[in-house]
Design brief:
Helices cover about 55% and strands about 10% of the residues. By secondary structure, the protein is mostly helical. It has two domains: about 80 residues, Arc Repressor Mutant, subunit A (Orthogonal Bundle), CATH 1.10.10; about 90 residues. Helix 1 packs across helix 3, helix 1 packs parallel to helix 5 and helix 2 crosses helix 3. The N and C termini lie far apart (about 40 Å). It holds the Pfam family PadR.
């Protein structure tokens, strides 16, 4: 549920309506394909059906009616879990590049330990690469060798990308407007203005 997880992450800082979510997605993940409005609203419907989000309020002032969505406690926990869980490099087709990018950038924008996200992902990729080593004395065949080489090259490319991304994050400093997230499933506390 890559798009759904990204939308849940976009709601971590606070409630938003569909148009704001689409704009935030396209800004946060500017190098990826922009979301279509239809995709945003169908994903919101699915997330609401699954009780991961709920309607916070409906605004009707100055224009069309806008439904504002917020995370439920279950949705908040899923979004935070998604950020903490590395992408499986052994899935069909390897680690989905868009998910790696979204997760890393979301962690950066949310001030949710982006360096830790990169480090955990790197560790998972290194384990996957070690698991590709053939057993000593095991017979080799062309199919196994070619498949293993392909997987190893993709993992190696991901590892190089993770290294470069970690360096870019360290050099970038904090994200503008970053929100620090709690480690538990409770909503962030609002600051008092006085």
């Amino acid at each position: 549920m890559a798009t759904g997880d990204a939308i849940l992450a976009l709601l971590l800082p606070g409630p938003k309506h569909g148009y704001d979510l689409k704009r935030a997605h396209d800004e946060w993940f500017s190098g990826l394909r922009p979301l279509a409005f239809g995709q945003v609203y169908s994903t919101l419907s699915r997330l609401q059906r699954d009780e991961l989000i709920q309607v916070a309020q409906t605004e009707t002032a100055d224009g069309p009616e806008r439904t504002i969505y917020e995370l439920t406690p279950t949705g908040r926990a899923q979004a935070q879990g998604w950020l903490a869980e590395p992408v499986d490099p052994n899935g069909p087709g390897g680690a989905p590049a868009d998910e790696l990018i979204r997760k890393t950038l979301a962690a950066y924008r949310l001030n949710s330990d982006p360096s830790g996200v990169v480090a955990r992902q790197r560790a998972v990729h290194l384990r996957a690469m070690r698991a590709l080593e053939p057993e000593r004395g095991a017979p080799e065949n062309l199919g196994s060798s070619v498949t293993r080489d392909h997987r190893r090259q993709h993992l190696d490319a991901d590892l190089r990308w993770l290294e470069l991304t970690g360096e870019r994050i360290r050099n970038a400093g904090p994200a503008e407007g970053a929100v620090h997230l709690m480690n538990d499933a409770s909503p962030p506390k609002e600051q008092e203005h006085g």
